[in-house]
From TrEMBL:
Region: Disordered, residue numbers: 117-143
Compositional bias segments (type: Basic residues): 118-128
The protein, known as: YqaJ viral recombinase domain-containing protein
Superkingdom of origin: Eukaryota
Length: 309
């Protein structure tokens, strides 16, 4: 895969923040969707070199960073539910990255769940237009339903899934009473971890649009999570914007060996150990967690985000 530097127009779009959502409290769903699949806190680790590895992967295509004035359009489309958030994330974050991926001929693309094929079944004909997960639930109607990811990242030739993305709303996305942020995030990452396990993927993306986390499987039962990447982050020589982080994720996923995890652990993944109580953690208000970028150093110091040291 020969490297080529992106033209200035593509560079500035990759380095720029994405627009903030247009949403109003009185016109939106009450809480984000949930899942019965959860990780224990012991299973979620720091992705300690996430920023460095992101820059290492993106720099050959982005070159040396130089100052610029980002153009950030104002959203005109209002969102009030998870589907709306997913649509705006696709348009504002994934579409610009997809244009760069096409320009670089990386042979990868984002799509909805039916766009992808489980890599273990990539040489088999799909049934009913999609591959079914082994995660199944029994809705109130009594019928068995198949759980599928929101977004997949596939290689273009055979559409085998290399990474997955789960989208939630940012409103109501906060720890419950007496629940630590670390416990909350471990539980939230469980659904994405299940999809990664089902599809033999090492990498995943979890987003509430305003903040995005990147997940890496490190062994059969443990996952490493990045620091929260803000939608308003602008790339610098040492920090990557959301789009730059997504581009680096595509580069990781394009490497067949890097992106493949050969073991499927199944339902045992969420049945490993009893939940423990962490007495040395504090509960901070959500406004403090997402309010200012500068607060992350304090959160990391106290261990509340359980992310980069």
């Amino acid at each position: 895969m020969a490297n080529k530097i992106l033209p200035r127009g593509h560079l500035e779009r990759i380095w720029a923040p994405i627009p903030h959502l247009r949403t109003e409290e009185e016109y939106r769903t009450l809480k984000p969707g949930g899942s019965k699949f959860r990780l224990q806190t012991e299973q979620l680790l720091d992705w300690e070199d996430f920023t460095q590895s992101t820059k290492h992967l993106s720099d050959p295509y982005c070159g040396n960073h130089s100052p610029f004035m980002p153009v950030i359009p104002t959203e005109t489309f209002g969102v009030a539910n998870e589907l709306g958030v997913q649509g705006r994330f696709v348009q504002n974050a994934l579409h610009p990255v997809g244009e760069v991926v096409n320009f670089l001929n990386l042979g990868m693309s984002f799509g909805d769940s039916q766009w992808g094929v489980n890599r273990r079944k990539g040489n088999k004909k799909k049934k009913h237009g999609r591959d079914e997960s082994e995660d199944e639930v029994n809705p109130k109607g009594g019928k068995r339903g198949t759980l599928i990811p929101d977004i997949v990242l596939v290689e273009s030739q055979r559409h085998t899934i290399r990474a997955l993305c789960e989208v939630k709303t940012h409103w109501g996305f906060q720890p419950g009473k007496n629940e630590t942020w670390k416990t909350f995030m471990s539980q939230k990452m469980g659904q994405l971890a299940r999809y990664m396990d089902d599809n033999y993927c090492r990498y995943g993306i979890y987003t509430v649009y305003e903040y995005t986390w990147f997940l890496k499987r490190v062994d059969d039962t443990h996952f490493a999570v990045s620091q929260a990447i803000s939608a308003s982050t602008i790339s610098t020589s040492s920090v990557g914007s959301l789009r730059e982080c997504l581009l680096a994720m595509v580069i990781r996923a394009a490497h067949e060996e890097w992106s493949y995890y050969p073991v499927r652990y199944g339902k045992r993944l969420q049945e490993l150990m009893p939940q423990k109580t962490f007495l040395n953690f504090q509960v901070l208000p959500w406004e403090l967690i997402v309010g200012l970028p500068a607060v992350f150093s304090e959160l990391r110091r106290t261990g509340l985000l359980f992310l980069l040291p």
